[in-house]
């Protein structure tokens, strides 16, 4: 029980190294959550308007012994679906996380209901770090991607749609230099 | 029930031509709804498990989780209030005379 509470209160670093400290916790930009909220609002407003128009055209639908229960069931089911849709959109946003520690970069991704992936790379393995702001919204709201390339890795490690990617790139570059210095001294 | 090889559309057409009625009890829709609620409940539990097991406790996450629980409880309570007053013995009549679907007089 105490362990579970501890895991909830702290980020559960997989295989925490001795002396390892969390430097930065990064989630996707708030704009991404905002788009999910807008989508949910559209999914609420559009059917509500359609129902309002139908009931305006056929007001006796609410008095029908068959149509009324069907409308209640449909509205109830749809409302619960929308609540769950938004809650899982939030979870998808909230649990997609990048942890930059003094030793590693950890990428935790929640993909749908049943998929969760955790990947990591050591800072001293990093060869190249690049940031990218692409498009109108990313330029206006200052969010974008950061790509981290390691030696011998064909694929890039990417942080997508995070706020202030240039600052994150600078932090990673600084930590990579410190980590490489540390490894030179100890090897 | 009369059936043709052409599938349900052909069956309905034949029913219409022979002027036979098909009644679906309204309570069948309630059972479908309850099945949906069961699935919804399973997915809600999975979602709550994710946020408790993998999420960091913060004001933001607690507020969103509480809002979700309160909103869904309100929807379920209101649904129960409305649905408990309904007469579920009524039947939905399909093909009541010719091609007139859903017998508009009772709908």
Helix content of chain B: 55-70%
CATH architecture of the largest domain in chain A: Roll
DSSP strand content of chain A: 25-35%
Radius of gyration of chain B: 22 Å
The whole-number mean of residue pLDDT values of chain A reads 86
What strand order characterises the main sheet of chain B? 1-2
The number of helices of chain A is: 5
Largest interface: A-B, 34 and 41 residues
User: Which sheet architecture does the biggest sheet of chain A show?
Assistant: 4 strands, antiparallel
**Per the principal axes of the C-alpha atoms, what is the gross shape of chain A?**
elongated
Unreliable spans of chain B are 1-5, 98-107
Return the CATH class of the largest domain in chain A.
Mainly Beta
Tell me about the largest β-sheet of chain B: 2 strands, antiparallel
The multimeric state of the shown protein is: heterodimer
Strand residues, percent of chain B: 5-15%
Beginning-to-end CA distance, first to last residue of chain B: 24 Å
Architecture overview:
The complex is a heterodimer of chains A (187) and B (107). With 187 residues, chain A is of the alpha+beta class. Chain A has five helices and seven strands; from the N terminus they run αβααββββαββα. Chain A has a four-stranded antiparallel β-sheet with strand order 1-2-3-4. In chain A, strands 5-6-7 form a three-stranded antiparallel β-sheet. In chain A, α2 packs antiparallel against α3. Chain A is elongated, with a radius of gyration of 23 Å. Mean pLDDT of chain A is 86; it is low at 1-9. Chain B is mostly helical. Chain B is elongated, with a radius of gyration of 22 Å. Mean pLDDT of chain B is 78; it is low at 1-5 and 98-107. The chains are: A alpha+beta (187), B mainly alpha (107). Chains A and B meet through α1 and α3 of A and α2 and α3 of B.
Give me the secondary-structure topology.
The complex is a heterodimer of chains A (187) and B (107).
Chain A: H1 2-9, E1 22-26, H2 30-57, H3 67-95, E2 97-101, E3 104-111, E4 115-122, E5 126-132, H4 136-141, E6 143-150, E7 157-163, H5 165-186
Antiparallel strand pairs in A: 1-2, 2-3, 3-4, 5-6, 6-7
Helix pairs in contact in A: 2-3
Chain B: H1 8-17, E1 22-25, H2 27-54, H3 59-83, E2 91-94
Antiparallel strand pairs in B: 1-2
């Amino acid at each position: 029980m105490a362990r579970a509470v501890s895991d909830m209160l702290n980020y559960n670093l997989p295989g925490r190294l001795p002396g390892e400290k969390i430097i930065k916790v990064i989630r996707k930009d708030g704009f991404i959550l905002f788009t999910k909220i807008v989508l949910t609002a559209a999914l609420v407003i559009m059917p509500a308007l359609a129902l309002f128009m139908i009931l305006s055209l056929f007001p006796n639908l609410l008095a029908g012994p068959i149509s009324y229960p069907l409308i209640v069931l449909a509205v109830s089911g749809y409302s619960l679906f929308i609540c769950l849709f938004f809650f899982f959109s939030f979870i998808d946003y909230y649990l997609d996380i990048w942890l930059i520690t003094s030793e590693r970069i950890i990428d935790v991704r929640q993909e749908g209901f049943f998929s969760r992936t955790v990947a990591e790379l050591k800072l001293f393995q990093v060869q190249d770090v690049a940031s990218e702001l692409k498009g109108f919204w990313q330029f206006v709201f200052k969010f974008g991607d950061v790509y981290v390339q390691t030696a011998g890795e064909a694929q890039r490690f990417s942080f997508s749609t995070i706020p202030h990617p240039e600052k994150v790139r600078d932090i990673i570059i600084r930590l990579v230099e410190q980590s490489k210095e540390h490894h030179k001294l100890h090897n | 029930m009369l059936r043709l090889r052409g599938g349900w559309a052909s069956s309905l057409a034949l029913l219409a031509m022979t002027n036979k009625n098909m009644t679906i009890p309204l309570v069948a829709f309630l059972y479908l709804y309850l099945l949906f609620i069961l699935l919804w409940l399973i997915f809600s539990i999975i979602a709550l498990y994710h946020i408790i097991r993998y999420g960091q406790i913060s004001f933001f996450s607690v507020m969103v989780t509480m809002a979700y629980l309160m909103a869904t409880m309100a929807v379920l309570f209101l649904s129960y209030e409305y649905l408990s007053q309904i007469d579920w013995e009524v039947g939905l009549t399909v093909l009541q005379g010719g091609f007139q679907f859903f017998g508009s007089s009772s709908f």
